[in-house]
Structures are given as structure tokens and as C-alpha cells.
Design goal:
Layout lengths: L1 H15 L12 E5 L2 E7 L14 E7 L5 E2 L12 E3 L7 E2 L12 E3 L21 E3 L21 E3 L11 H4 L2 H8 L10 E4 L5 E2 L5 H9 L4 E3 L6 E3 L17 E6 L4 E5 L4 E10 L3 E6 L2 E3 L4 E7 L2 E8 L8 E8 L4 E11 L22 E8 L4 E7 L9 E7 L6 E5 L5 E4 L7 E8 L9 E5 L6 H16 L15 H25 L15 H18 L13
Parallel strand pairs: 2-3, 3-5, 4-6, 5-7, 7-8, 8-9, 9-10, 10-12, 11-13, 15-22
Antiparallel strand pairs: 1-2, 14-16, 16-20, 17-18, 17-21, 19-20, 21-22, 23-24, 24-27, 25-26, 25-28, 28-29
Bound molecules: 2-acetamido-2-deoxy-beta-D-glucopyranose (NAG) (6 copies).
Organism: Amphiprion percula
InterPro entries: Cys-rich_flank_reg_C (IPR000483), FN3_dom (IPR003961), FN3_sf (IPR036116), Ig-like_dom (IPR007110), Ig-like_dom_sf (IPR036179), Ig-like_fold (IPR013783), Ig_sub (IPR003599), Ig_sub2 (IPR003598)
Protein name: Leucine rich repeat, Ig-like and transmembrane domains 2
């Protein structure tokens, strides 16, 4: 409403004041000096860049005005513009064409905004840019070719951002740096270039080696505003200055195991150990017969700076636990794995051992209460609760996959664990997830079907593109939290609402029906988020009448 009001007033002023180039947007002041005309807008709540800024301005300063975006060709008509100061706004997004038409721009100051990334190719349009101030933003990546189009810079400020790992190629690929290197010693040939890179959370592991060496070797005409850059991680290097740390080159993981052939009696606790040497630290996961064991408790400890031990504990061995366990370690360079054979010794059972089969026991009728406990931008967290005779020994199987796909991924979860997160959902996709006891097939009441949100909005799409570029260019970097599936907040709240509603109905149902809790876990079958709402309101009622009793195997046709 404010923006509308301001827009009306601006329009009015345009009509009331003499039409022509000498108007000044409302709330701003315009001055003339020997350099040219300047526009100054301070602490107005304009929220967006005024349209129709007269074209004869040399300097524009819009500060503390709650700007959130630099749209395409924002200042296109202000072709003479040389100084653009947009400090202390709330800009999160800069369009790749936002600097279009600004061929004479020499200063761009964006201090104190909320940029997490900058479309660096935008600077193609500003070949004369000398000063670029991005201090106090939230930049967390600097792609290798970020500076490619900044060939006339004399000052680049990236201090107080979120940069943690960058490669030295950012600078060695910079044409300006290459010229400076050639002109080294011939004073006066090139002007100095001041770089501000301090106060970023530098992660001093092997990935930063090149950059740390670059910083140590920097010499005029490149000048660091503050050459005391400090590591903020990993723990062993935190708070050390760059010149105090010695970094080694990165190394692909190498996995090994002290024991690769283990035989234990039935009912024993097994501990499988895998040692991984890698730089930087690897992520380690265990798999059993090619299925990833994400739920078993694997404990990681650092043996030395480059070696991690991962221990997988399998409590009270069952026959079904026999087999080949594989420990796989990954870092950005590669992966490595080692297999450990686990056998169960017992003189009491007759050879050959039977294959693992579902054991029919009183657990067969145990009830599994499953729900979506949390939604994140990428996915969901499931939680379940089961009353079984022996909770310390009951393991679960999660069956997860697209609803219409007969093949589901099966994930085995160890005893005592009752949640599991999926983090790579696709948008507008219908999924089914079931939690079963041991290796039983899924039954009705043990499954949830859900649909992820519609495709992302245009604004998110643009950010996402930026982030994808980042992923491709900077493999070595942690990718900032993205904005993928199940996206907009509106949709989330819709789903939340539905889940709430469904939960409430469920509780209502429980109250009415006392102990019979089966069948209250109706699948949320929906083809869209709107459908999700509607279905969750209607279906449980309808279905509760007809399908209240648990009918074993009704979900099994999917497999
Ligand atoms: C850009 O600057 C040059 C040299 O200072 C000047 O001749 C030219 O008119 C300027 N361009 C515009 C569009 O004002
Ligand atoms: C483990 O040892 C048994 C006998 O001790 C042998 O038969 C089996 O092949 C070994 N397995 C592996 C994977 O080394
Ligand atoms: C297995 O581990 C559990 C818990 O750590 C312990 O209570 C139990 O005694 C162990 N069993 C054996 C056979 O060592
Ligand atoms: C491990 O690396 C190989 C190539 O070296 C690749 O083909 C394979 O997909 C990788 N596996 C994983 C789990 O990343
Ligand atoms: C596992 O142990 C049983 C007896 O304890 C033995 O018969 C069998 O060959 C072993 N299997 C492997 C793969 O070592
Ligand atoms: C194995 O057999 C022996 C006698 O053959 C018996 O005493 C023992 O209880 C049995 N153990 C198990 C776990 O069944």
C-alpha cells in the first residue's frame, strides 16, 4: 500500500510540477553541482526503485529505503550515471541485467544488503566500474570467473560476508591480476587495486590451500586492506591467521578395515570398524546388501587429523544380519569403500542357513504410528512410534518412493531409532512412504502418501538458477540452503494445515473408537496441493466407515 501511495504521489508530482527532466521523486532531494545532478533518497519507505528517474543524473544514492531487489534494467534510462550507492537496503536479489545501460558507471556500493549471490556477468555492462563495495552482505560463494568482467577495478570489498572456501583461480583468472603481474616492477604502469577480504568465516582445510598461498604472496599493485585473514574452522585451525597455518593438498578417501571377516555368535553385539584417510573430511555411509543403512548408529571419531574411524554397531545379532557390510567414504574428489563380511556362528542351527524371512510373532500385529513430523524446503522428516514386545531389538524397514512406481527404496533402520529424513524431494510429485516392522511388507495404516508443492515461483526460479551456477562452478563448496521442492510458504502452511486437520480428525477418531487405532492413518492421496487440502478433509471420514479394520497387505500390491 505504501508503494502504491508513493507511486500515486510521484505521478501527481510529475503532473503538478513542470513536466520534463528537472523533476525530483517525492521524498528525495535533487541537487546540482559542478559534477552534475545528484539524487538522494534517505530513509524513505519506497521499497522499490522509482520508475522514471530523470535521465540526467550523474549520482544516485538510495539508502535505508527497504529496497529488496535490483530488477532488470533498473537504471536503464539514466545513461550518464557514474555513482550508484544503494547501501543499507534489504536487497536480496540482483537481476543479471540490472546494470544494463550503465556504461559510464564507476562506483557501485551495495554495502549492508542481504545478497547471498551476485550475478557476476552483470558487470559486462559496466566496463568502467572502479569501485565495487559488497561489504556486509551474505555472499557465500565466489565462482572462479566472478571477476572476469571487472577489468578496471581499483577497489573490491568483500569483507564481512559468508565466504568460507574459494579457489585462488578467482584471482589468477582475473584479467586485472594478470596485467598487474606482467607489469610487476614497472611502477606507474598499473594503478593499485585494493582488496578487502577479511571477516569472512574462512574454512582452512585443504580446499583453501591455494587461496591461503595467494594471500600470503600478494604484493603491490594488489594490496590487501587487511592482510590478517583469519580461519574460523575447522576446530584445529580456528582463530589462526593465514600466515600461521600450513595446509596440505586434498586427498581422495582411502577406506580400510582392521577386520574384514567377522564371525560372532547369535545375539552378540557386533561392532564393525572402518578407517578412512581423506582430506577434507569424508562423509561415510554404510550399506548392507546394497541398501543404505541410514538408521543404524554409526559413530565417527577422529583418529588423527586426516583419519576418521566409523563404527557401526549392530545390537543383538539376528540371522538376518548376516551378510556383507560396505563402508563407503566420499569427499569432493572421490570415493572409496571397503566391505566387511559378518557371519554368525552357532552350532545349534542346521546348515544351510535359511534365508532371512519375516518372523511371525506377536509383533506381527504391532501397530506402527507414522507421521510427517517436519517439513523442510527439501523434504520431510518422518517419525514413527511402535509398541512392540522387545523395542531394543525391533528394527524397521522404510519403503520410500514415487507413489506410482512399483519399486520402492528400502531402508533398514536399527532398533531405538524412530525418525528418518528425506531431503531430495522433487516438486509436484506424489510420494508414498511406509514404515514396517522388521522386513514385513507394508500394510494399510503404515503408509503415508504426500505430494510436494507446485513448481517454484519466478523469483525463486531466478535464485535457483543462480545457485545452480554456483554448484557447477564451485563443486568444492557447501551449497547454501536452497529453495527446491515444496516451496512457497503459502503451500507449506496449506500442507501444515492439512496435516494438522488430519491429525485432529485422527484424534477425534481415536476418541470415538477407543482402542481401535488402525485405519486412522489414511493416505493423503492428492494430485495437487489444493487436492491435498480437500482430500484430507473428506477422505478420512469416508474411509473410516468402510475400511476401519486393518486389512493386511492392501498396500502390498505396490511392490
Ligand atoms: C560517458 O562518459 C564519456 C566520457 O566521460 C562522455 O563523453 C559520455 O557522454 C558519457 N556518456 C553518457 C551517456 O553520458
Ligand atoms: C571369511 O572367512 C571364511 C573362513 O574363515 C572364508 O570361508 C570366507 O571366504 C572369508 N570371507 C571373506 C570375505 O574373506
Ligand atoms: C549389547 O549392548 C547392550 C547395550 O549396549 C548391552 O546391554 C548388552 O548387554 C550387550 N550384549 C552383549 C551380548 O554384549
Ligand atoms: C565412486 O566413484 C566412482 C568413480 O570413481 C563413481 O563411478 C561412483 O558413482 C562413485 N560412487 C559414489 C557412491 O559416489
Ligand atoms: C558362516 O558360518 C557358518 C557356521 O558357523 C559356516 O557354515 C558358513 O560357511 C559361514 N559362511 C561364510 C560365508 O563364511
Ligand atoms: C545350543 O545347543 C546346546 C546343546 O547342544 C544348548 O545347551 C544351548 O542352549 C544351545 N544354544 C542356543 C542359543 O540355542
Amino acid at each position: 500500500m505504501d508503494a502504491f501511495y508513493v507511486a500515486i504521489r510521484i505521478t501527481l508530482v510529475f503532473y503538478l510540477v513542470t513536466p520534463g527532466s528537472s523533476t525530483c521523486p517525492v521524498g528525495c532531494s535533487c541537487t546540482d553541482d559542478n559534477l552534475g545532478r545528484s539524487l538522494l533518497c534517505m530513509e524513505t519507505s519506497m521499497g522499490q526503485i522509482p520508475k522514471d528517474i530523470p535521465e540526467d543524473f550523474i549520482k544516485i544514492r538510495i539508502e535505508k529505503c527497504h529496497l529488496t531487489e535490483l530488477p532488470r534494467a533498473s537504471f536503464f534510462q539514466v545513461r550518464a550515471l557514474e555513482f550508484l550507492w544503494l547501501n543499507f537496503n534489504e536487497i536480496t536479489l540482483m537481476n543479471i541485467k540490472s546494470l544494463e545501460g550503465l556504461a559510464n558507471l564507476t562506483e557501485l556500493r551495495l554495502q549492508g544488503n542481504k545478497l547471498t549471490s551476485v550475478p557476476w556477468t552483470a558487470f559486462q555492462n559496466t566496463p568502467k566500474l572502479k569501485i565495487l563495495d559488497l561489504k556486509h552482505n551474505r555472499l557465500d560463494v565466489l565462482p572462479e570467473h566472478a571477476l572476469r568482467h571487472l577489468t578496471a577495478l581499483t577497489y573490491l570489498d568483500l569483507s564481512f560476508n559468508q565466504l568460507s572456501v574459494i579457489s585462488k583461480e578467482v584471482f589468477t583468472n582475473w584479467p586485472l591480476y594478470q596485467t598487474a603481474e606482467k607489469a610487476w616492477g614497472k611502477e606507474g604502469l598499473v594503478s593499485n587495486v585494493v582488496l578487502a577480504l577479511h571477516d569472512n568465516p574462512w574454512l582452512c582445510d585443504c580446499r583453501l590451500k591455494g587461496f591461503v598461498e595467494f594471500i600470503r604472496g600478494v604484493s603491490p599493485p594488489i594490496i590487501l586492506m587487511n592482510s590478517y585473514l583469519m580461519c574460523s574452522g575447522p576446530a584445529s585451525k580456528a582463530d589462526k591467521f593465514f600466515h600461521e597455518v600450513q595446509l596440505k593438498t586434498c586427498m581422495k578417501p582411502v577406506a580400510s578395515a582392521p577386520e574384514t571377516n567377522i564371525t560372532l555368535p547369535l545375539g552378540a553385539n557386533a561392532t564393525l570398524t572402518c578407517l578412512v584417510k581423506a582430506r577434507p573430511d569424508p562423509t561415510i555411509h554404510w550399506s548392507y546388501s546394497l541398501k543404505i543403512i541410514r538408521g543404524f548408529a554409526a559413530k565417527e571419531t577422529h583418529i588423527d587429523e586426516d583419519t576418521v574411524a566409523s563404527q557401526l554397531v549392530i545390537p543383538s545379532l539376528h540371522l538376518a544380519d548376516r551378510g556383507l557390510y560396505t563402508c563407503t567414504a566420499n569427499n569432493f574428489i572421490g570415493n572409496s569403500s571397503i566391505s566387511i563380511a559378518l557371519n554368525i556362528s552357532s552350532s545349534n542351527f542346521s546348515a544351510p542357513l535359511p534365508p532371512p524371512v519375516p518372523m511371525l510373532s506377536s509383533d506381527e500385529n504391532a501397530f506402527v504410528d507414522i507421521r510427517i513430523a517436519k517439513q523442510t524446503v527439501y523434504g520431510v522428516t518422518l517419525e514413527w512410534h511402535a509398541v512392540t514386545e522387545n523395542p531394543a531389538e525391533t528394527w524397521f524397514t522404510i519403503h520410500f518412493g514415487k507413489y506410482d512406481s512399483p519399486k520402492k527404496e528400502m531402508i533398514y533402520i536399527g532398533p531405538g531409532i524412530n525418525s528418518y529424513s528425506v531431503s531430495d524431494l522433487l516438486p509436484v510429485t506424489k510420494y508414498e512412504v511406509c514404515v514396517t516392522l522388521k522386513n514385513h511388507p507394508p500394510r494399510e495404516g503404515q503408509c503415508i502418501v504426500f505430494v510436494t508443492g507446485n513448481d517454484i515461483s519466478e523469483m525463486e526460479q531466478r535464485e535457483r538458477l543462480i545457485h545452480i551456477i554456483v554448484i557447477v562452478l564451485a563443486m568444492v563448496l557447501a551449497v547454501p540452503a536452497g529453495m527446491y521442492a515444496c516451496t512457497t510458504e503459502a503451500r507449506f502452511s496449506c500442507v501444515d494445515h492439512c496435516v494438522d486437520l488430519w491429525r485432529r480428525q485422527r484424534m477425534h477418531g481415536e476418541n470415538l473408537q477407543g482402542t481401535d487405532r488402525h485405519g486412522t492413518f489414511d493416505s493423503l492421496q492428492a494430485a495437487s496441493d489444493e487436492g491435498l487440502c480437500r482430500d484430507s478433509e473428506e477422505k478420512p471420514k469416508k474411509r473410516r466407515k468402510s475400511e476401519d479394520k486393518c486389512k493386511g497387505g492392501s498396500a502390498a500390491h505396490l511392490y
